[in-house]
Amino acid sequence: MGLSNYLPSSRLIQPGVCTSSTRPASPFEGQYIYETDTNRTLVYDGGAWVMTVDADSPPALELIKAQTVGSAVASVTVSDCFSSTYDNYRLVVQGVVNSQAANFTFQFSGITSSTYLMGGTFFNYASATVTGYGPAATTNWAAFGVAGTTNSHICADIFAPFATTTKAMFSQSTSTASYYSFGGTCTSTTSASGFVLAVNAGTMTGGTIRVYGYRNAI
After folding, report:
1. Span 61-214: which CATH code?
2. Beta bridge mates, 154
């Protein structure tokens, strides 16, 4: 008995071919599809569609961890996100609302010494003023981003957090009130596998923290 007795002819001609809006409604684990509108091949892992990696051009960033902020918290600890697999990382914080105007702070897990140096500027939208910022060494990056009373966002690169060498960061952030741009170093050579994101005043509610690893090579 041929396959045509079990599958419609269209499936024999184009098995698994669809668009991003016409994916199988009830996929099975391990099912592959090809989307003609995105030119992506995906596999269903039992809970979500995951893009398969092209050996010639793998994604430059790989999502390592996604963590929600919670409700009315002063700090969030993100553990086990740095390792020897990647040298450098991208940190994306999206949609955090703080109870009052404040700054985000960043501290590597296990590095609480006064080894954090930073500097940069912040721009106030209402007054159109630019202010410089450059404190002495502190126990964290004290102005890692702007924490506003409406949605606040951060995009930051973290360099060599897991290595036993000096660490660094470049951070940009925005809320509806202002924009921050900062860079800094941490001279501690202690290896860090995680970090604490906090605010220097008030409490945070909502939003997501995502950590991505930069792929070094194919």
Report:
1. 2.60.120
2. 93, 173
Query: Can you give the pLDDT at residue 6?
Result: 52
Question: Which are the contacts of 140, defined by CB distance < 8 A and separation ≥ 6?
Answer: 105, 106, 107, 116, 196, 198
Q: Is 127 helix (H, G, I), strand (E, B) or coil?
A: coil
Please write the tens of the pLDDT for every residue from 103-120: 999 999 999 999 999 999
In angstroms, rounded to a whole number, what is the distance separating the alpha carbons of residues 157 and 171?
Answer: 6
- What number of other Cβ atoms are within 10 A of residue 33's Cβ? 20
- Predicted pLDDT at 13: 47
CATH code linked to domain 3-51: 2.10.10
Q: What is the DSSP letter of 73?
A: B
Distance CA 63, CA 104 (A): 22
Domain ranges in the chain?
3-51, 61-214
Output the pTM of the full model: 0.75
Q: For the chain, how big is the Rg over CA atoms in Å?
A: 22
Over residues 171-210, the pLDDT tens digits come to: 999 988 899 999 999 999 999 999 999 999 999 999 999 9
Cβ burial 63-83 (10 Å sphere, 16+ → b, else e)? ebeebebeeeeeebebeebbe
State the Cα–Cα distance between residues 29 and 101, nearest whole angstrom.
46
d(CA 148, CA 33): 42
| Mean pLDDT, range 15-42, rounded to an integer | 87
